[in-house]
């Protein structure tokens, strides 16, 4: 039976070699059997630009993704809040298609909205202001013009700042806003929603305006847990690796 897989929030880096090994095994296993693989953001802990494609760590991942697409699996990648500088060179090297956030797909007969999820965290005002800045084409152009080592330091500084900021915020502020979810569902004619970002995997069911809708939150990957969402004509289900 045809099916598609969805993952997000792996946050791969040279410090997560165990996770990289698990990801490569996933690409060589379940992903090879799927019609499509969707990576909905934050595949990497940070991505400082496509001119870093040839680094040893990145090259292993790029090569494995290319092997996947060469095998016939379609690969779709969405930017997250950590790897928003992934560009066309990465897409060409891996055989992937970059998709916008959000993206509307007809998934085995069910209209589905795909998003990284951070746009729905509207209660976190400071984060939304930062997101607007780093998603600006002008800002990205300026940053990509900097020496690669300077960008690497900027990425590490951003990670440290994010870690410190999270310590001062409640889980409720960092989670999606109920109002933002309702607005997304109503605006798009009551679709299924699949997203990541919050690291709070779950299936949520809504009854809105006489419509039953579901929202799937993808699991993040750690040394203790990893998994994907499996969707076919019978629906979706979470699978643990």
Could you explain how this protein is built, in words?
The chain is α/β, with parallel strands linked by helices and 241 residues long. The protein has a single domain (4-240), classed as Purple Acid Phosphatase, chain A, domain 2, CATH 3.60.21. 36% of the residues lie in helices and 24% in strands. It is built from 8 helices and 11 strands. The strands form 2 sheets. A 6-stranded mixed sheet has the order 4-3-2-1-10-11, covered by helices on one side. α2 links the parallel β2 (36-40) and β3. α1 (17-28) packs parallel to α2 (56-70). The longest helix has 20 residues, at 148-167. It is globular. The two termini are 20 Å apart. The model has no long low-confidence stretch (mean pLDDT 96).
Low-pLDDT runs of 5+ residues are: none
Q: Between the first and last Cα atoms, what is the distance in angstroms?
A: 20 Å
**Which percent bin holds the helix content?**
25-40%
pLDDT average, as an integer? 96
Total count of domains: 1
Name the helix and strand elements from N-terminus to C-terminus, one letter apiece: EHEHEHEEEHHHHHEEEEE
Main sheet? Answer: 6 strands, mixed
CATH class: Alpha Beta
Spatial strand order of the main sheet: 4-3-2-1-10-11
Strand % is 15-25%
Question: How many strands?
Answer: 11
What structural class do the secondary elements suggest? alpha/beta
């Amino acid at each position: 039976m045809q099916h598609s897989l969805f993952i997000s929030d792996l946050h791969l880096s040279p410090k997560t070699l165990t996770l990289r090994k698990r990801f490569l095994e996933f690409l060589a296993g379940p992903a090879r059997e799927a019609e499509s693989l969707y990576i909905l953001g934050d595949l990497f802990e940070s991505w400082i630009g496509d001119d870093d494609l040839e680094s040893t760590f990145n090259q292993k991942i790029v090569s494995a993704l290319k092997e996947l697409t060469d095998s016939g699996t379609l690969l779709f990648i969405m930017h997250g809040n950590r790897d928003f500088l992934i560009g066309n060179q990465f897409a060409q090297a891996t055989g992937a298609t970059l998709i916008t956030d959000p993206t509307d797909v007809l998934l085995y007969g069910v209209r589905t909205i795909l998003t990284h999820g951070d746009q729905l965290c509207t209660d976190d005002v400071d984060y939304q202001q930062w997101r607007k800045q780093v998603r600006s084409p002008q800002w990205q152009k300026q940053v990509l013009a900097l020496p690669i080592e300077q960008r690497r330091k900027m990425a590490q500084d951003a990670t440290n700042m994010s870690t410190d900021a999270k310590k001062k915020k409640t889980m409720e502020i960092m989670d999606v806003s109920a109002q933002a979810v309702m607005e997304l569902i109503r605006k798009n004619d009551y679709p299924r929603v699949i997203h990541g970002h919050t690291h709070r995997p779950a299936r949520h069911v809504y009854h809105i305006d006489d419509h039953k809708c579901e929202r799937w939150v993808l699991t993040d990957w750690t040394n203790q847990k990893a998994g994907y969402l499996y969707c076919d004509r019978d629906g979706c289900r979470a699978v643990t690796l």
